[in-house]
Amino acid sequence: MSDGWRGAGCFSSEKRVRQCARGHAIKRRMGDVKQLQGYLACPRCDKAPLAFDEGRFRCDACKIDFPDIDGIPWMFADPDASLGEWRNRLQFALQQLGHEIAGLDVELKDNDLRTLTRRRVERYRKSLDQHRRALQKLLRPVDVQSQSGSYESYLALRTRLPADQGLNTYYANIHRDWAWGEEENEASLKQVRSVLHDNAELGDVLVLGAGAGRLAYDIHRQLDCARLVAVDFNPLLMLVANEMASGQRLSMYEFPIAPRSLEDDAVLRRLSAPGAAGDDFHLVLGDALRAPFAAGSFDTIVTPWLIDIITEDLPVFAARVNRLLKDDGRWVNFGSLAFADPSRARRYSPEETKAIVAESGFSDPYVSQATIPYMCSPASRHGRQERVFTFCAYRERAAGQPPRHKALPDWLVTGKEAVPLTQSFRTQAMTTQIYSFIMSLIDGRRSIEDMAKILEQQKLMSRQEAIPAIRSFLMRMHDDAQRQQGF
Known about the structure:
Elements: H1 13-32, E1 51-53, E2 56-59, E3 64-66, E4 68-69, E5 72-73, H2 79-107, H3 115-138, H4 151-157, H5 171-180, H6 182-194, E6 201-208, H7 214-222, E7 224-232, H8 235-245, E8 250-254, E9 267-271, E10 281-285, E11 298-304, H9 314-324, E12 325-334, H10 350-359, E13 366-374, E14 384-394, H11 410-414, H12 423-441, H13 448-457, H14 463-485
Parallel strand pairs: 6-7, 6-11, 7-10, 11-12
Antiparallel strand pairs: 1-2, 2-3, 4-5, 8-9, 12-14, 13-14
Helix pairs in contact: 2-3, 5-6, 13-14
C-alpha cells in the first residue's frame, strides 16, 4: 500500500489527528492479518501454509508474493495481472465519470433549459464530480494509475475477471448494506438463523461472495463465531467493507435509476456500521472459484446470493465447498435461485438444487423460504420483494477433489488447437460479414433504399427484408455513437 498521500501538504491539527487514527487502525488490521496464515493456501498450487513476512503472504513453491490492499490480502492465482486488470477497469470507469461530467457541461450551455431542469442538472453535475473525487480517494490503495500486469499470465492460468465486474457492479449494495437497508439486512440475517439450530456455534466461518460485507458483519457480531473470513473479488466493495468493519464512516453518493423526486437523483449517504467488527473479522480479496484456503479449514461456509450467478456448474461448486469444510461442517446458502446459465439444463429448480447438494457429500438440506424486501431504497421508485431460498446442509463425506477452475479453454490458451466451429460462431461470422458489407456501402451518397437494392442484387435478402434490417443496424450504430459521446 502506498503511503505517499498521507504526509503530503499541510493539514489542520484536527485532520492530522484523524489521519493518524486511521493509520493506527490500518496497522492494527495488518497486524491481525497473520491470523489468516493457518487458513490460507496458494490459489495457484494449493500449497499451505503460506509464508508471511512484513504484512504479506508468499508462496515459496510458486515464488509469488501476494500484495495487500489497505491491509486486505490480495489472494488471486495471478496477483500482478489481476491487480493490473482491476486497475485498468477502475481507472477507465473514473475516466468515464469525467467524460459524463463534460457531457453535462455541454448540456448546461443550452440557454433554453427550464429553471428546474437546469437546477437538477447542475446539482447532479456537482454531485457526480464529488462522487468521482470520493472514489479516487477510496481507491488509492489499489493505485489505479499503475501499469497493468501482463495478459499472458491470465492465459497461462486460465483465469480472468467476469466481464461485468467493475466500478458500478453492485454499487447500490453498498448503500443497502451500510445506509438505508436495515429492514432487508435484518430479514437476511433472520433467514440465516432460520436454518440453524438455536444457539448454534458456527466456529470458524467463511463467507464466499461477501460483497460490501454487511451479512458477514452481522453474522460475526450477532451469531456465535470463533473467527470469520469474508471473501470477494471486487476491491471497491471490499475497501468499503474494510472501512465499515474498522468503525470508520464514509460519505458516498447514491444515484437511483428511478428517483422519487427532483433531488433524489443524487443523494449523499452517510455510511457506517453499528460498531467495529473486532479482531476476529477478516477480509480477503480473491476468487470464490479458486478460493485461497486449505482443505478442511472451516466449520461453516456461507454463500450469499452466489450459487446462481457464478459461471461454474453447481455440482462442481458444491464439491469445492465440501473440500473447504471440516468433517461435520455446515454449508449455509442464502439468496435467490435465478440460474442464468446459457445451458437450460443448468438452470436448476429448488428441488434439483437440494438433490445436487445431497449428492455432493452433504446431508439432505434443511430449507427455509421467505419473501423479503430487496434493494428498496427510500430515494428510488424501484425495489421489489424477493423470494429467497436458504438452506443448511452438513458435510457427511468427501465429495472428491474438484478440478481446478479454468475460465478459458485449451484452444484459446495454447493457440495450437483447432478453434471449434460452434453454431454460435457460425451465426456470428455470418452476421459480421453482412454488417461489414453494409458498412462498406456507406459512402455519404447512398440511402437506405439504395443499400437495400444492392443487398438484393447480391442475393443476401430481398429488398423488403433489407430495408428494415439496414435501418435497425444503423439505428444501433447511431445509438452507440451517441453513448460514446456521453450525450
